[in-house]
Design brief:
alpha+beta, 7-stranded mixed beta sheet
């Protein structure tokens, strides 16, 4: 990975319009929310990789992880996850991984869990998504 990429940083509210544009361009269904922490990697002022930690009462859901297409497969997603460890352990952190991304999340300290192990506030959301035909796997961040 190119070491000139920025250290992951939490997005200040002033940047929200830039983050919103990034999501609209590269992941329209990953709608950012000002109320949730969003973390990014930038290079020369341009966002290359982002993720959102959707907040719930007792946990958080890693969602909306996206890398700019020309920078995929360079390790940016792993770099982002591994450099926000403190944010990921601040509350139990879960993700609903698309089937093809389970190996990526496994390499980055997430463990597949049974649906029943999801907190109640995530179970109904997960079941609704899978009922729509999405092939998702529930996972939990386990790095100590």
């Amino acid at each position: 990975m190119n070491t000139s990429y920025s250290t992951p940083e939490q997005v200040p509210s002033l940047w929200f319009p830039l983050v919103k544009k990034f999501y609209q361009a590269h992941y329209p269904s990953g709608k950012p929310n000002k109320a949730d922490p969003i973390w990014v990697i930038r290079h020369q002022g341009k966002i290359l990789c982002a993720l959102r930690l959707k907040q719930f009462y007792e946990c958080q859901l890693l969602t909306g992880m996206v890398t700019e297409p020309n920078h995929r497969h360079l390790g940016l997603g792993s770099h982002l996850i591994n450099n926000i460890h403190l944010a990921l352990i601040s509350k139990p952190t879960y993700c609903f991984a698309f089937a093809h991304l389970v190996p990526f999340y496994t390499r980055n300290h997430f463990m597949t869990i049974p649906t029943e192990m999801l907190p109640e506030e995530l179970q109904s959301r997960f079941l609704a998504y899978t009922a729509q035909g999405r092939k998702l796997t529930p996972m939990r961040y386990i790095r100590c």
